[in-house]
Design a protein that fits this description.
Number of domains: 1
Shape: globular
CATH topology: Aspartate Aminotransferase, domain 2
Strand order of the largest sheet: 2-1-3-4-5
Bound molecules: pyridoxal-5'-phosphate
CATH architecture: 3-Layer(aba) Sandwich
Order of helices and strands: HHHHHEHEHEHEE
Number of strands: 5
Helix content: 25-40%
Structural class: alpha/beta
Distance between the termini: 52 Å
Radius of gyration: 20 Å
Strand content: 5-15%
Number of helices: 8
């Protein structure tokens, strides 16, 4: 019998799997899916330019990447016209959600999200002892006003909002999202998950304003850029400041 015990917090956690991968389901079914829809991957795959850059970089795969992601942060900063100091690179949004929750959530910290929203956020939040408070969807959309009210009522420190949303596939206009950002109580940090924003109609993303202290926006190469399985870095950045891959 093992004498190794989980932490007190881990012992209280339910056995939860936030995302059951298609491979797991295929093994359970004993057959392959015709289409892998559940993971929301881009079936188009990466741009041919990105594939070429990856082919050229493949021989250097033995190297760890630059821990500061200096070149990638600068390329992204140039692309978005913001200061690189405002950009953090992670291994995808899921990883960044975990780090964020770890930094902000103590056992008992109130957190707000929509009932049925992206489960990986909940997985991390509960995993660090956070207490989830949920508000219902309204007409298949996340309900910004209900989120704001709930944040005030429970004194939440963190509130999650995805635009566009998964699983509903609905989205709000930039104006609605800007209002949400402007009206969230200053004591709460808004996590604005924009994993799908590049695929939304123009006008879905409010302008980036890194000076807003209680909003953190998350983007990814996994969806519109078709690079769910890739580690991303910039190659030969000094020679190709005009090309971001
Ligand atoms: C709303 C949302 N956020 C984040 C992710 C995961 O993003 P990443 O691949 O960058 O971890 C997904 C993937 O399904 C998602 O639906």
């Amino acid at each position: 019998m093992s004498k190794i015990t989980l932490t007190a917090l881990a012992q209280t956690l339910p056995s939860t799997v936030p995302f059951v991968g298609p491979e797991t389901q295929e093994r359970a079914l004993g057959k392959k899916f015709k289409a892998r829809l559940g993971a929301n991957e881009s079936l188009f795959g990466p741009s041919p330019k990105a594939i070429l850059a990856m082919e050229q970089a493949a021989a250097d795969i033995w190297q760890y990447g630059d821990p500061e992601n200096y070149d990638l942060r600068n390329a992204l900063a140039l692309h978005h016209d913001i200061d690189p100091a405002h950009i953090i690179i992670g291994e995808g949004i899921d990883g960044l959600l975990s780090y964020l929750v770890r930094l902000l959530v103590d056992p008992g910290t109130p957190i707000v999200t929509s009932h049925g929203a992206y489960p990986t956020f909940n997985f991390h939040a509960v995993g660090y002892g956070g207490v989830l408070h949920t508000v219902p969807y309204k007409n298949d959309h996340e309900d910004p006003q209900a989120l704001i009210t709930e944040v005030s009522e429970v004194g939440a420190k963190l509130v999650y909002f995805a635009n566009p949303d998964n699983p509903m596939g609905t989205w709000h206009s930039a104006k609605t999202v800007q209002d949400l950002m402007d009206n969230i109580p200053q004591e709460a940090l808004l996590v604005l998950d924009e994993a799908y924003v590049e695929m939304a109609p123009k006008g879905t993303a409010p302008p980036l304003n890194p000076e807003t202290e209680n909003v953190i926006r998350m983007r990814t190469f996994s969806k519109a850029y078709g690079m769910a399985g890739a580690r991303v870095r910039v190659c030969n950045w000094s020679k190709r400041t005009d090309q971001i891959v």
